[in-house]
Amino acid sequence: MKDPMHGVTLEHIVTALVEAYGFPELSKRIPIRCFEHEPSVASSLTFLRRTPWARAKVEGLYLFHLREQKRRARRAHGSDVRAAAGLVVTATRGVMGVVGEMQAAIGPVPMITDLVTMALRGVTGLVGEGIDAAIAAIAPLLGESTPGEAREAVLAALNGVVGDQLDASKSPLAIPMTLRPPLLDLHRGGTLLVMVHGSCMNDLQWQQQGHDHGRALADELGCTLAYLHYNSGRHISENGAELAALLEREAAPFSDLVIVGHSMGGLVARAAIHVAEQAEHAWRARLRVLVTLASPHHGAPLERGGNVLELLLGVTKYTAPLRALGQIRSAGVTDLRFGSIAEADWRERDRFAHGADPRAPLALPAGVRCYAVAATTAAATSDPASLPSALSSDGVVPVDSALGRHANEAFALRFTESALVYECSHLGVLSRAEVYARLREWCAGLGG
């Protein structure tokens, strides 16, 4: 029997109508009791599922709503972002509930291409024609329009989830590695401060709760600030190699270099240092300070189930509905299992296979002041060792991993100094005053 709704769930339909009209207007358009007395999406669904005639009226209003929306719609940057996010979700997983959540969080997602209809009929799976079609459809939607918070957030999330595939297919959605703002060889001498963001994030997201560690440090110390923007779905070692080459070009005019990396960013920084040492890059000798904030030096256990993405994609309202893609893991995310930063850690291995830690020990760089910040959601205690293992984490990265501790001494990282922040989340380290105080202390004497 033909399905006139093409598989769109009742929950999605009701949510979309409530978002578009509200319950008072719905009760006028369709005078049924589920919209009139103590209305809610949940109670409405219960009533409609056991009342066929009422469900038919609701579906009819939904189809009318879509037609009206299409008739009145004018392509705008915001709708492009929402449409792109909806397309990648449906094409990779066929989960209309996710699009429904996105409508609730941001607004209606226009049904603008045949790809959506195809996805609703069952296009599933990360590989094959589904994802290829999604990428092809999304590219023109997130083209060269004026960048904004929504576009940047969605692009960063897409790159974190499927960035390795975007890169391999040379998709225009793949984020090229750049320093922002570009240095343009305008600086001579002084200190360059490079901020390296984490997985599924972008350089704009260093600002949290009205505070930006990088901007505050640059203002206080008088150094030149640059934010790295990169595709976090690629292997960490690949991003590290590209960062090493970028710094060899861009850091030449500076006498001192400081790198601060959050989460995956700390691993990308270490990978870049490793490559620079092997290639004997000049910038390596000018590196004075490395700070890692909540970086999984020995892995993030949540990666094993893809759950780390469920947390990271909840950074903004634009990307939160994408959390259902948690089981899809890019090369960058699977590197987080053990904290793999060298190419040899993954080359010729099945990155999804279970097994022992494949890494070879890799020490912190010699002659560099290396610092680490770890966070835990637990309350403060005078004895950090007494923290229950379930609470010894910021929700993503275990404290021991962030501080470089390891049962095998060969893998243990010996930081110059470290700090543990209590009652703090993985993203909370980006705005906490005590974290900034440590950064300022550790970078004292540099600048100008």
What are the low-pLDDT stretches, counting only 5+ consecutive residues below 50?
A: 71-84, 86-131
Report the major sheet. Answer: 7 strands, mixed
> Widest sheet: strand order?
1-3-2-4-5-6-7
Run of helices and strands: HHHHHHHHHHEEHEHEHEHHEHEH
Assign the CATH topology of the largest domain. Rossmann fold
Describe this structure in words.
It is a single chain. This protein has 448 residues and is an alpha/beta fold. The chain folds into three domains: 1-72, SAP domain (Transcription Termination Factor Rho, Rna-binding Domain, Chain A, Domain 1, Orthogonal Bundle), CATH 1.10.720; 74-175 and 301-325, no CATH class; 178-299 and 353-442, 3-Layer(aba) Sandwich (Rossmann fold), CATH 3.40.50.1820. It has 17 helices and seven strands. The protein has a seven-stranded mixed beta sheet with strand order 1-3-2-4-5-6-7, with helices on both faces. Helix 1 (10-21) packs across helix 5 and helix 6 runs antiparallel to helix 9 (129-141). It is elongated.
